[in-house]
Please model this.
Amino acid sequence: MKDKPSSKIALLLIAAGLALSGACSLTKGKEIGERAVAQFHDQFNAGQYHEIYGQADGGFRKATAEADAVALFEGVRRKLGAVTNSVQTGWRVNATNAGTVVALQYDTEFTQGKATEQFVLMVSGESARLYNYNVNSPLLITR
Model:
C-alpha cells in the first residue's frame, strides 16, 4: 500500500517542527550564555571574584580551588584593568546528557589592553554556570 501524499507532507512538517524546536533551544542556550558572560563582566569589574567562583559550575570548582580562581581574576584585573567593551567572535552550543554546553568566544577590551576570552558554560533552565574560563593577552605574559 502506498503512502498518501498528505501523510508524507505531515511527516515532513513534524520533522521540520522538531528541527526548528531544537534550533530554538540551541539559540536560547546561546542567549542564556551571553547573559551569563555579561554578568561575569559586571562582577569582574566590581571585584566580586568570590561570587563568580561561588556561582560557577561544580566542575569548575572541582578543577580549580577558590584561592587560585580569585588569584587569576585579580591578576587579570591588575594587568588588564576593567572590561570596557566585549564583542562575541564565535560560539558553539551542544546538547549533552549532562545538559546544554555553551562555548562563547569574545574579543574584549580592558582599560589597559585587549584580550581574547573563552567561556564554557553549563546551561540548565534559565541559568548558565561557568564551567571553564580562559583569557589570552600579551599583557598577561610575565618575564
Remarks:
- The chain has a mean pLDDT of 87.
- The CA atoms of residues 98 and 122 lie 8 Å apart.
- The domain at 5-140 is CATH 3.10.450.100 (Nuclear Transport Factor 2; Chain: A,).
- Residues 5-45 form the longest helix (41 residues).
